[in-house]
Design brief:
The protein is an alpha+beta fold and 297 residues long. It is built from four helices and 14 strands. Helices cover 38% and strands 26% of the residues. Helix 1 runs parallel beside helix 2.
């Protein structure tokens, strides 16, 4: 069978000769198919190159953005570190002021807390301590001002019982669980059961009886001028509500009623409804030497 072909006529421009070239159809079709395939290949390569360029551009943009974020993170980290140092300094200052005012028992931890890692307590707790210190300072000014006009015999100024100081005024661990911070509104004075408890100033008994809380048997004496003293965990009471008492007069006996771990007297001094450090009123009395080193301040 004769093969089909295309005739390509070539004419010479000078001699005028004609030349016929026979091209098989299969060859033409093969060339066309190869051309189409080549076009698709070139298009695919171009598309792949364009996608690669686009991905590289996006990668560079993301990398620049990541570098910017990293730079901002480093800047924020420096600011946080500086803030932590300031908070650590504030914590040290707050603790020193607390010890100076007798609000906490002792200064714990190194002088430079910032070198020991994250700041404890948190910012919220530090602000709460600051607010408390501020209110305590204002209360101290009111207290000193009130003492100028408060009769000496109506100002608490002696020890309520002869004994040893077991617990101070301020924040401390829960004595029952050994965990968690609790604020202790007074001082604990240990002694033998039945030891005589005396009024620390002249006043009027406004409460005398068993309580439903952890105080057990409690006596509260109002001394006027916003002063009150509280005597808790008593074995028994020798006074009643409405009775006038004088400084040094017996109001009860040391016991272990209420929520206690050992027999002792829990003694509080309130000025204007706010608990104050009783040691500031007791430290000049005759029993100070009997406590000696047992007091934690």
């Amino acid at each position: 069978m004769k093969q089909e072909y295309f005739v390509l006529v070539l004419a010479h421009s000078l001699h005028g000769r004609l030349r016929r070239v026979h091209i098989p159809q299969k060859a033409v079709y093969a060339i066309l198919i190869l051309a189409v395939v080549g076009c698709f290949s070139v298009f695919g390569f171009a598309a792949s190159y364009a996608r690669m360029v686009w991905k590289v551009a996006n990668y560079n943009a993301l990398r620049r953005e990541a570098d910017n974020v990293r730079a901002r993170y480093q800047d924020l980290r420096k600011k946080v570190t500086e803030t932590d140092r300031q908070l650590a300094t504030l914590e040290v200052y707050a603790r020193e002021v607390s010890v100076a005012y007798g609000i906490k028992q002792k200064l714990e931890g190194p002088a430079d807390i910032s070198s020991e890692g994250p700041v404890i307590p948190s910012l919220t707790e530090s602000l709460e301590d600051y607010n408390f210190l501020r209110s305590a300072g204002l209360m101290g000014l009111k207290n000193r001002s009130a003492r100028r006009f408060q009769p000496a015999e109506s100002t608490p100024s002696i020890w309520p019982v002869v004994g040893r100081l077991l617990g101070g005024f301020g924040t401390r661990l829960d004595p029952f669980s050994g965990e968690g911070q609790k604020f202790h509104n007074g001082v604990d004075i240990g002694g033998p059961i039945g030891a005589r408890i005396v009024a620390t100033a002249d006043g009027l008994v406004v409460q005398a009886g068993a309580t439903s809380g952890g105080f057990g048997r409690l006596v509260v004496i109002d001394h006027g001028g916003g002063y009150q003293t509280w005597y808790a965990h008593l074995l028994h009471m020798t006074v009643q509500v409405g009775q006038e008492v004088r400084r040094g007069e017996t109001v009860g006996a040391l016991g272990n009623s209420g929520r206690v771990t050992a027999p002792h007297l829990h003694y509080e001094v309130h000025v204007g409804g706010t608990p104050m450090n009783p040691y500031g009123f007791m430290k000049g009395s005759a029993y100070e030497s009997s406590a000696g080193k047992d007091f934690p301040f």
